Amino acid sequence: MVEKLRPFITASNLSFPSDYTVAMVLFRLSHGYSAKTITSRSSLDPYLISKTTNMVTRLLATKLYPEFIKISVSRRRLIETTQGFEELTSLSNIYGAIDESLIKVLGLKLDKNLMNSYKYKYGYDSVLLQISAGTSTQNLFDGMLMKGRYVVVEAIGLLKTRWKILQDLNVGLNHAPQTIVACCVLHNLCHIAIEPEPEIRKDPDETRAPTRVLESEKQFYYFGESLRQALADNLHQRLSSR
To answer: Partner of 177 at 20 to 30 A CA spacing, among 28, 103, 110, 220?
Structure first.
């Protein structure tokens, strides 16, 4: 990874060697330390630490993103994945699971008109990382969906455990997206390298009231509801015939 980033880091004219630069940023992302905390441990200028973090996360989120975050389109991978989800959930033709998780952002300084846009019901500021619509287990279909959803819930927990900065994001709002994407890139890199997985951290309850359907989106909402009902009916019919 250092070799892939070295040309870009060298061109930035930082006073640190490339390997030291990457190591410092990985240390901050994995421990979740703020720039001030690292300053107290290293005597480096906090502005320089923030600048270096922003540069490396931007490089990870742009230069390495296409290589480490992608959906495989090979027929073999498609068949293996859909078969795996069908064995888990009894639902056919599922290629992936989607979920969402709140990333707490510390020290946000926002205009009054924007304050409520980032305020979570428990009182802290956050941004939403969308990785599945939450479901309840009210019926058989929902129960099957929950089995599939658990796969991505576990992945999110592992992501936040490995990169602790995602538990309390201490970067500016403008740099929050690239920091989150950078952690996802690094997470996939660890997976490829078969790094040991830490014990998964479980998020507190993030259940929210159902999102209000906008007037302009009602046709998509009702289409989704009808499609969901069709899938539920199909599952019930297939399980009843066994």
So the answer is: 220
